[in-house]
Amino acid sequence: MTRAPFILMVATCVSLLLAGCDNSDQKELRQELDALVRDAKGRIEPLPQIKPYTPQVYDQRDARDPFSPNKIAEVPRANKQVKNSHEELYAFHQKRAKEPLESYALDALKMVGTLERKGTTYALVRVNQSIFRVKVGNYMGQDLGLITRIAPDQIELKELVQDGEGGWAERAATITLQENEGPRR
C-alpha cells in the first residue's frame, strides 16, 4: 500500500505538467499571426530591363603611346634659358660633396630649435636620435634642398626637382618648428 500514495503523487505531478502546457496563449498568438499573414501584401519589384551588350571597337593605332620614352621629348619647352640654368645647377650638385642631411627625406627631418652664435643663426634639426646644426647655405633633403632662410619657427628651402618634361624646376619647401613632442628618454 505504500505504492499507492507514490503513484497518486506521480499522477498529480504529470497532470499539473500537462495543465501547464495549455494552448490558450498559443491559440491567441496563432490567430494574430494568421491575421497578419492574411493582411500582408508583399510585392516583389520586377527585375530591371537589361540592355543588350554592344561591343565597342578600340582602335588607337594612330594615337601616341603613353609609355614611349619620346613622350617627354615631344613636349615643347617654353623657356630654354631657364632649362639650361637648372641643368647647370643640377650638374653643379652632382659634383659637390653631399652633406649628411641630404640622405634623409624632408619628412624625416624635424626642426627642434634655433640658436645664434657670433651673428649667425643656426637651426637645430633632429633626425633619428641625432641633432644637427644647419645654417643658410647648407643642403638638406633628398631633392637638393638649399636652406635659404632660417626663422625662429621654420626653415625655408629651395629644392631642385625634375619637372616631368625632361628638365629641372625649383620648388619651395619649409620645415616648421616641432612643438614639444612629450618627454624624451
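the 2nd protein, sequnce then structure:
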Amino acid sequence: MWCYDLYHMDVDELAKPEVVICGVGERLLDGWLTQKPNLPKLVGQIPNLPVKEAVDVRVKLDTYNGHPTDDTNISVTDDSATLELIGWAADFNDYSPFAGLYLKVGEKIFECNYGGERKDVADYYSNEQLIYTGFQITIPVKILDNELQELQFFGVSADGQYIFQPVKYILT
C-alpha cells in the first residue's frame, strides 16, 4: 500500500491496516535521482609534497574489471570501455590509512575513491586503524595506449605532510 493510496481509503480501512509502507518508494526514487556515476576525479597533478621512500607502503589490488588478482600484473584484454580497480592501501610504517590515494596513468592523474570500509583487512592484521583503507577507481580504457606499461599508485601520508614513492602495477 503506497502513501498515495492512504488518501483514497475510508477511515475504517486506515484504522486497521495489515501493512502500511509509507515513504519507502519516495526514498528509493530520491536515491536513484541523486546517485552520481562513480567516475574518477581527474586532477592536474599529484599534491606537491615532499616524497618519502615507500618502506612499507602497501597498495593491494583485489580485482580489475571483476577479475581477482594476486599479482602486480594486470591483463587488459576485455573489450570493455572502462577498467575498474578495487583494493586496499595503507601505510604499514604507522599502520594507518592514507590521507588520499592517486593513480597515475601515463601523464594523467586521477584521485581514487579512497576510505572505503575494509573490515577484512583490519581483521586480518588485527588492527582497527586499517578498517577504512578500501579504494575503487574506474578509468576509461581508451587512455591505456599501446605505449603505456604501468599504473602508479601514490599514497599521501595520514598527516598530509608527504607523499610516498609509487607502488606500480604492470599492464600486460
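Residues 1-37 have pLDDT under 50 and may be disordered. Residues 3-34 form one domain.
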